[in-house]
């Protein structure tokens, strides 16, 4: 037994989430600070040495940078280390990975990873335009391309190459909306029927309203520490971080050698599994990115869960059990933190009506930024 | 209106000037310091013909700020005859439906204006369907 390695084991001591939605009455700093305090309360009031913040759009939508000082002070922790991590949709996951690395290094004992996004301070079109920042501005954004349109261009090629039609996306949407019904933090809790799906307006051919997640306000936080700092009697129930990896691919769609291969998703998943010493068939629960349904399809294929052309067949795995970005809503830079916190709830057996029947032992959680150009994967588990 | 940036990119926007890698002969657009094919330094200018075909596309109805007057419009990945893929709006489509494989050619068009702030108009490449014979 490698005791030194065991001592350095990163554990998740607490989580905190606010409902995703339109929080007209809450500002960026209040959203963020409340999620931090919720997660710390859940950890038994550990005292943080550092707070790492994942955020995508505050610079534009809230005219606010320097979130480390703003939010950590608001949460009552003046004097500690804090700064922001940005990786588009994967920002929350990037902050979590930073927290894990800091704690594992031994330089930090307790770190909080916060994902926070405040979308509704502006009108909807301003928020959508801000989201397009994640594209290559000089050669994509300048053409009038949007993120959803970029996803649609990938989807169009996918359907054409594999001789399919847009109905392949229906099950992903129906599944997500069904799971979100029982998630108290989800934005869409009224379900979705096949008839409603088929009558949806097509936003960017071939993707419709229900294939594209809605941007919304949200904040979620996780407290991480080393196992050695947790009282022995509490260690057994702690969710551990078994693997973590970040990989990038060309940002622009036109620079990708294979448009239909999410190579970053593939590399970061393989790397995280390798660090966990696990194979894919040992994973009980998957949280995969679904900002646009084509993201899920290509993630399934990239990770090795489906053959090329079959990534829309998700029936055989437990996927996005609390609704994902489509059903929960997509607070961009916070979504990666929601994914992780939701997986922790499932692993703890605390997911309420969303709890999957057989208590899962291993979860693979992957966040994508910028149409698969950044992929951050974490493997969480017990024991 | 970000004058330095648009000035810097004028050869790309007006004449599809990219690069040919002196080491592996890969054609590159837009130009970059490191060849994406072989990883060595790329610096030899190369002007593309502007001919290609639609690799994939979509239609944009909810346009971002600065593009709303143009909506709905089609944006495509255009595979140039020389190899690289370019992201661009399609124009002059008429009643013709866009399809993957459709032959297209570069034209210079108004990309956007600054909303009458100073009356500056940005021009650059779009692609239109190729029609047989001179036009």
From TrEMBL, chain A:
Residues 10-187 form the Thiolase N-terminal domain. InterPro entries: Thiolase, Thiolase-like, Thiolase_C_2, Thiolase_N. Pfam families: Thiolase_C_1, Thiolase_N. Residues 251-381 form the Thiolase C-terminal domain. One of its GO terms (molecular function) is acyltransferase activity, transferring groups other than amino-acyl groups. Coiled coil: none annotated. Keywords: Transferase. CDD domains: SCP-x_thiolase (cd00829). This is Acetyl-CoA acetyltransferase.
From TrEMBL, chain B:
The lineage of its organism: Bacteria, Bacillati, Chloroflexota, Anaerolineae, Anaerolineales. Residues 47-109 form the ChsH2 C-terminal OB-fold domain. Residues 11-39 form the ChsH2 rubredoxin-like zinc ribbon domain. This is Uncharacterized OB-fold protein, contains Zn-ribbon domain. SUPFAM superfamilies: Nucleic acid-binding proteins (SSF50249). It comes from the Bacteria. Signal peptide: none annotated. Pfam families: OB_ChsH2_C, zf-ChsH2.
């Amino acid at each position: 037994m490698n005791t030194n390695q065991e001592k350095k084991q990163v554990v998740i001591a607490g989580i905190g989430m606010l409902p995703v939605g339109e929080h007209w009455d809450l500002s960026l700093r209040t959203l963020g600070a409340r999620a931090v305090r919720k997660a710390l309360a859940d950890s038994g009031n550990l005292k943080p040495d550092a707070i790492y913040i994942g955020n995508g759009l505050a610079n534009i939508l809230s005219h606010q940078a320097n979130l480390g000082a703003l939010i950590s002070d608001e949460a009552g922790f003046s004097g500690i280390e804090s700064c922001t991590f940005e990786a588009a949709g994967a920002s929350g996951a990037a902050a979590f990975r930073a927290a894990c690395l800091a704690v594992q290094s031994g330089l930090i004992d307790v770190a909080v990873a916060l994902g926070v996004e405040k979308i509704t301070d502006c009108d909807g079109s301003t928020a959508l335009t801000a989201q397009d920042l994640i594209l290559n501005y000089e050669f994509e954004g300048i053409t009038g391309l949007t993120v959803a349109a970029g996803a649609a261009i990938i989807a169009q090629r996918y359907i054409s190459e594999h001789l399919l039609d847009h109905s392949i996306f229906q099950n992903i949407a129906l599944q997500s909306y069904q799971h979100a019904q029982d998630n108290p933090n989800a934005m869409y809790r009224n379900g979705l029927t096949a008839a409603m799906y088929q009558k949806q307006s097509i936003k960017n051919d071939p993707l419709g309203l229900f294939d594209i997640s809605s941007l919304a306000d949200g904040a979620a936080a996780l407290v991480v520490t080393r196992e050695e700092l947790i009282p022995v009697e509490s260690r057994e129930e702690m969710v551990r971080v078994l693997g973590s990896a970040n990989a990038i691919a060309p940002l622009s769609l036109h620079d990708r050698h294979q448009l239909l291969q999410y190579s970053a998703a593939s590399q970061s998943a393989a790397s995280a599994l390798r660090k966990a010493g696990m194979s894919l068939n040992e994973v009980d629960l998957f949280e995969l990115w679904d900002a646009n349904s084509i993201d899920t399809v290509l993630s399934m294929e990239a990770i090795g869960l489906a053959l090329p052309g079959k990534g829309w067949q998700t029936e055989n795995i437990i996927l996005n059990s609390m609704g994902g970005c489509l059903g929960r809503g997509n607070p961009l830079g916070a979504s990666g933190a929601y994914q992780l916190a939701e997986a922790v709830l499932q692993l703890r057996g605390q997911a309420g009506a969303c709890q999957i029947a057989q208590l899962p032992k291993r979860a693979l959680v992957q966040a994508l930024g910028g149409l698969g150009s950044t992929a951050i994967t974490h493997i969480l588990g017990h024991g | 209106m970000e004058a330095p940036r648009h000035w810097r990119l004028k050869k790309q926007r007006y004449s599809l000037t990219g690069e040919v890698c002196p080491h592996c002969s890969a054609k590159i657009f837009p130009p970059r310091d490191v060849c994406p094919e072989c990883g060595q330094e790329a610096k030899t200018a190369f002007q593309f013909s502007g001919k290609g075909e639609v690799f994939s596309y979509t239609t944009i109805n909810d346009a971002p700020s600065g593009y709303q007057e143009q909506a709905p419009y089609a944006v495509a990945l255009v595979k140039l005859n020389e190899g690289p893929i370019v992201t661009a709006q399609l124009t002059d489509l008429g009643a013709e439906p866009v399809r993957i494989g459709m032959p297209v050619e570069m034209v210079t068009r108004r990309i956007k204006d600054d909303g009458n702030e100073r009356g500056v108009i940005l021009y650059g490449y779009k692609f239109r369907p190729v029609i047989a014979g001179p036009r």
